[in-house]
Amino acid sequence: xxxxxxxxxxxxxxxxxxxxxxxxxxxxxxxxxxxxxxxxxxxxxxxxxxxxxxxxxxxxxxxxxxxxxxxxxxxxxxxxxxxxxxxxxxxxxxxxxxxxxxxxxxxxxxxxxxxxxxxxxxxxxxxxxxxxxxxxxxxxxxxxxxxxxxxxxxxxxxxxxxxxxxxxxxxxxxxxxxxxxxxxxxxxxxxxxxxxxxxxxxxxxxxxxxxxxxxxxxxxxxxxxxxxxxxxxxxxxxxxxxxxxxxxxxxxxxxxxxxxxxxxxxxxxxxxxxxxxxxxxxxxxxxxxxxxxxxxxxxxxxxxxxxxxxxxxxxxxxxxxxxxxxxxxxxxxx
Length: 334
What we know:
Blueprint: E1 2-6, H1 11-22, E2 26-30, E3 46-48, H2 55-61, E4 67-70, H3 84-104, E5 109-113, H4 138-157, E6 160-166, E7 169-170, H5 183-191, E8 198-200, E9 206-207, E10 210-211, H6 212-224, E11 232-235, E12 242-243, H7 244-255, E13 262-264, H8 279-285, H9 293-307, H10 327-330
Parallel strand pairs: 1-2, 1-4, 2-3, 4-5, 5-6, 6-11, 7-10, 8-13
Antiparallel strand pairs: 9-12
Helix pairs in contact: 1-6, 2-3, 3-4, 5-7, 5-9, 7-9
């Protein structure tokens, strides 16, 4: 089959392209290079430096493709409160354009990568796919809106779809010089430079982090299994929830830093406790976790050591600057 991957220079997209190539498929993909590295693109990929919002060029790039994975995203949940135009354009408009290009090309199936931000806040954890979506920020709102358009257009035009909900994926190739996202990579990049990690609020925010290799197993199944069409499926572990404070301690143990974190005030609209259930993925996909978080931290740290630590690049504009905009971003403190 010919597989198309949006965001193929990014963290998730490049790993997915590697997997599809290893399975014997032909792979094409696009990226606008906002959030990826050029050397992430695997050799053998038919690469198009095309923005997902460019309908005509994206349609041409997808010609002859059977499956489209939409992994491209400006996945800036916290930043979306302060740069809503940039983030929602690159989530909602980019998703609608990608779906339209795929339907124009009469693809068999679209695998849409959503986000756990779709769920927002719920009192009962872990979050299940059946829960009502109450996203708390523009990023989550845009992701859920993209899902709604996906369902509408695919059902109208006879294209199969499935919605994957990855959460907090970590591992090598993640952009680690980005001050706005990827908490583990930010911590490790700082700590490997002898700098203390920055933590927002009390650090008791609870998450589960998903190793990239575990997510890839699920995404492969979603492209080819018949019983997943029209489903929403969480991807990632639910058995190892951890606080941000505990993550910082784990990163300190890996880097050898004497931990004394720097705390800043809470970021607006950040959900405190968010862990997704993996029950549906276990039942339908045969999912199981093969990497624990300590292994993921080690792999990510080794990747940063090999490439070399980097100064953080404030490559995206703050569209709203006021008293609640994090000082870490306004004053470039990370």
